[in-house]
UniProtKB/TrEMBL annotation, chain A:
It is found in: Cell membrane. InterPro entries: MetI-like (IPR000515), MetI-like_sf (IPR035906). GO terms for cellular component: plasma membrane. It is a multi-pass membrane protein. Pfam families: BPD_transp_1. Keywords: Cell membrane, Membrane, Transmembrane, Transmembrane helix, Transport. The chain crosses the membrane at residues 7-29, 72-91, 103-127, 139-158, 179-204, 240-259. The lineage of its organism: Bacteria, Bacillati, Actinomycetota, Actinomycetes, Kitasatosporales. Residues 68-259 form the ABC transmembrane type-1 domain. CDD domains: TM_PBP2. This is Sugar ABC transporter permease. SUPFAM superfamilies: MetI-like. One of its GO terms (biological process) is transmembrane transport.
From TrEMBL, chain B:
It is found in: Cell membrane. Keywords: Cell membrane, Membrane, Transmembrane, Transmembrane helix, Transport. It comes from the Bacteria. One of its GO terms (biological process) is transmembrane transport. Belongs to the binding-protein-dependent transport system permease family. One of its GO terms (cellular component) is plasma membrane. This is Sugar ABC transporter permease. The chain crosses the membrane at residues 38-64, 102-123, 135-156, 182-206, 235-260, 293-315. Residues 98-314 form the ABC transmembrane type-1 domain. It holds the Pfam family BPD_transp_1. It comes from Streptomyces flaveus.
Length: 273, 341
C-alpha cells in the first residue's frame, strides 16, 4: 500500500518534470539547429549537425553585450536600491508605531493591486516633463521608493523577530537607525536574497518600461531580443533567437540556483498572511 | 538618560518596570513613543514620497487625461467630459477584449491554483531529491516573460515547432498555433508553465500546518482524503485566497500576448491575433499605435475599477470559506497540550 503510493508519487513527479522542463529542452535544441534543419520535414527532434556557431552569430550580429550591459546596469541599480529601500520601509512598518501607520499600511497593501501599466504611461509623461526619458534615472527613482511587495516581505520577516533584540539595544542607547542597520538587517539575509533575486529578475525581464522609456540604442536585452534577429527579407531567424534567448535566460536561472536556498526560506519564513 | 554608562545601566533598566518610581517610566515611555513615531515617519517617508510622486500623481493625471482628448504630446487637448467613458461602453473592441480577458481569467486562475496545490502536495511527500525537484518545478517562474514568450513561440512555430512535430507523429496535420483561433491555447499553456509560483507559496502554507493535526486525524480513523479536505484545505484557505486575488489581478492586466506576437518591426502591436487581444492589448494599442492618451486613460481607469470590484466580490464571497482565526502558532501549542494531556 505504502510502496504503491510512493511509486504513484514518483510517476506523477517524473511526468510533471518532463512536461515542465521540455520547453527548456526545445529552446536548446532549436538553438543548435542550422538554418536548413529548421525547415526539415518531418521535424528533427535532435540537431543532426549541431552548430554552436549560432551562439556566436546571435551574440555578434548586433551589439548583444551592449544591450546586456544596459539590462545589467538597470537591473542592478534597481535591485540594490529597491531591496535596501524596502527593508528600510519594512522595518518602520514592522517595529515602530505612529499615528497614521495603519492608514499608510492600508494604502501600501492596496497599491499591490494596482496594474503596473496603469501608472506607467502617465509616469512616462511625467518623466518626459523632467527630461528623464532615455536615461536610467526612472529606475533610480523607482528603486529609492522601494516596492510594496518587497516592503511587505521585509515587514513580515521583521515582525516575527523577538522584541528582546530591540529592547536590549534601546537600553544600550542605540537609535532606531543603528538598530535597523546593525541588528535587523544582518539577520534578514534570506529576505534580502529573495528581494534581490525578485527585483533583479523583474527588471532584467521587464519589457514594458524599457520599451516605453528608452530609445533603441539604450534599451535592454528584453526589448531587443524579440525583434533583433531577422534576415534580409524580414523573416525571423528562429535558431538565432533561441540561442540569444538562452544566453539571456541562463544568468537569471543561475542566480536563482545559487541563491535559491535563501530564496525559498525567505518566502516561507515571510509567510503570506 | 545619558549615553555615558551604557553597559552599567543595562542590567537594572530591563527590570525597572516592576519596581521603579511611578513618575519616571511614563515620561520616558512618552518621549520614547514620540521618538518612535518620528522614526516611523523617517522609515516610511521615502516610500510615501515615492507613492505620491510616482503612483498617486500619475493615477490622478490619468484620471484627468481620461476626461480630455489628449494625444499626450501636443498641447491642444481639450476637456471632453464623459465622452471617453461613453465610448468605452459602446466600443465593440473594448467589450470583446473585456470578454476575452474574463474567459482567460476564469480558465487560468482556477487551473493554476489547483495544479499548484497538487504539485505542492506532491513535493511535500517524503521522497528522495525533493529539494531538487522543487527547484526544477519552480524554474519556469524565474524565466523572464519575454524569454518564456519566445520559447513558446519556438514550440508552437508552424514549421519548426515541437507541437506540430508531435501531431505529425500521430499523422495529424500541423496547426497554425500562433494564429486565430489556436493562439489562446498557447497563451493558456504558457501561463500554466509558471505554476511553480503557486506551488512554492502553497508549499510554504502546507509546511505551516502542524503535523500533529494530521496524526491526530489518522488516529481517529480519518482517510488521507478526509484529512486533506477537513484539515489541510481549511488551514490553507488564507493562502489559497491570497493567490486567487493576486491571480485574478495579474491575469486581468496581462499583456503577455503582445510578447508572444512581437514581430521584427519594433513595437508591433497590430500583430496580436484576435483571440489573444486581451483588454491590456487594446489599451496599449490605443496608447502606442493610436496615440489616444485620453481614451486609453479612460480604459485604464475602467480596468482599475473592475479590478477593485472583482476583488471586493471575491472578498465577500470568501467570507465563511476562509479561516483566519486559527493561527498556525496557536494551533501548534493547542495540539501539543492535547497530545500531552
Amino acid at each position: 500500500m505504502v510502496l504503491s503510493r510512493r511509486s504513484v508519487v514518483y510517476m506523477l513527479l517524473v511526468s510533471v518534470l518532463v512536461l515542465i522542463l521540455s520547453p527548456f529542452a526545445w529552446l536548446a535544441i532549436t538553438a543548435f539547429k542550422d538554418a536548413s534543419e529548421l525547415r526539415a520535414v518531418p521535424i528533427h527532434w535532435w540537431p543532426h549537425h549541431p552548430s554552436p556557431g549560432n551562439f556566436v552569430k546571435a551574440l555578434t550580429s548586433w551589439d548583444y553585450f551592449g544591450y546586456a550591459r544596459n539590462s545589467l546596469t538597470i537591473a542592478t541599480i534597481y535591485a540594490v536600491l529597491a531591496t535596501f529601500a524596502s527593508a528600510w520601509a519594512g522595518y518602520g512598518f514592522a517595529r515602530l508605531e505612529a499615528p497614521g501607520k495603519r492608514v499608510i499600511f492600508g494604502v501600501l497593501l492596496s497599491t499591490m493591486m494596482l496594474p503596473q501599466v496603469m501608472t506607467l504611461v502617465p509616469t512616462y509623461l511625467l518623466f518626459a516633463k523632467f527630461h528623464l526619458i532615455n536615461t536610467y534615472m526612472p529606475w533610480v527613482l523607482w528603486g529609492l521608493c522601494g516596492m510594496p511587495y518587497l516592503i511587505f516581505l521585509f515587514r513580515q520577516f521583521f515582525t516575527n523577530m523577538p522584541k528582546e533584540l530591540e529592547e536590549a539595544a534601546i537600553v544600550d542607547g542605540c537609535g532606531q537607525m543603528r538598530i535597523f542597520w546593525r541588528i535587523f538587517l544582518p539577520q534578514s539575509w534570506p529576505v534580502i536574497a529573495t528581494s534581490l533575486i525578485l527585483s533583479f529578475s523583474w527588471t532584467w525581464g521587464d519589457w514594458l518600461a524599457p520599451a516605453l522609456l528608452l530609445d533603441t540604442g539604450r534599451t535592454t536585452l528584453a526589448v531587443q531580443l524579440a525583434t533583433g534577429y531577422h534576415n534580409a527579407h524580414g523573416g525571423t531567424l528562429n535558431n538565432l533567437v533561441a540561442a540569444g534567448t538562452l544566453v539571456y535566460v541562463v544568468p537569471v536561472l543561475v542566480l536563482f540556483l545559487i541563491l535559491q536556498r535563501g530564496f525559498v526560506s525567505g518566502i516561507a519564513t515571510s509567510g503570506l498572511k | 538618560m545619558s549615553t555615558g554608562h551604557l553597559t552599567v545601566a543595562a542590567g537594572p533598566a530591563v527590570q525597572s518596570p516592576a519596581g521603579a518610581p511611578a513618575t519616571r517610566p511614563p515620561r520616558r515611555r512618552r518621549s520614547l513613543a514620540t521618538r518612535r513615531a518620528w522614526a516611523f515617519y523617517a522609515f516610511a517617508g521615502p516610500w510615501v514620497l515615492g507613492f505620491l510622486a510616482l503612483t498617486a500623481y500619475p493615477l490622478g493625471y490619468a484620471l484627468w487625461l481620461s476626461f480630455t482628448n489628449s494625444d499626450g504630446l501636443s498641447d491642444n487637448s481639450r476637456f471632453v467630459g464623459l465622452d471617453n467613458y461613453k465610448e468605452v461602453f459602446s466600443d465593440p473592441e473594448t467589450l470583446a477584449s473585456l470578454a476575452r480577458t474574463g474567459v482567460f481569467t476564469a480558465m487560468t486562475v482556477p487551473l493554476t491554483i489547483v495544479a499548484g496545490l497538487f504539485l505542492a502536495v506532491l513535493v511535500n511527500q517524503p521522497i528522495r531529491g525533493r529539494g531538487l525537484i522543487r527547484t526544477l518545478l519552480y524554474l519556469p517562474a524565474v524565466v523572464p516573460p519575454v524569454g518564456a514568450a519566445i520559447t513558446f513561440r519556438m514550440i508552437f512555430d508552424r514549421d519548426s515547432g515541437a507541437a506540430n512535430g508531435l501531431l505529425d507523429l500521430f499523422n495529424v496535420n500541423g496547426l497554425a498555433w500562433l494564429a486565430d483561433p489556436y493562439a489562446r491555447w498557447v497563451l493558456i499553456v504558457l501561463t500554466l508553465w509558471g505554476v511553480g509560483n503557486v506551488m512554492i507559496i502553497s508549499l510554504a502554507g502546507l509546511q505551516d500546518i502542524p503535523k500533529e493535526l494530521h496524526e491526530a486525524a489518522r488516529v481517529d480513523g480519518a482517510s488521507p482524503w478526509q484529512s486533506f479536505t477537513r484539515i489541510t484545505l481549511p488551514l490553507l484557505s488564507p493562502v489559497i485566497f491570497f493567490q486567487v486575488v493576486t491571480g485574478i489581478i495579474a491575469s486581468l492586466q496581462t499583456f503577455v500576448p503582445l510578447l508572444i506576437s512581437l514581430d521584427p518591426t519594433p513595437k508591433g502591436i497590430g500583430s496580436v491575433p484576435e483571440s489573444n487581444s486581451l483588454f491590456m492589448i487594446h489599451v496599449l494599442d490605443q496608447y502606442l499605435l493610436g496615440g489616444r492618451y485620453g481614451y486609453a486613460s479612460a480604459l485604464l481607469w475602467v480596468l482599475f475599477l473592475i479590478i477593485i470590484a472583482v476583488t471586493l466580490i471575491v472578498f465577500k464571497l470568501s467570507k465563511g470559506a476562509v479561516f483566519y482565526s486559527v493561527e498556525p502558532e496557536r494551533a501548534k501549542t493547542k495540539s501539543r497540550t492535547i497530545g500531552g494531556g
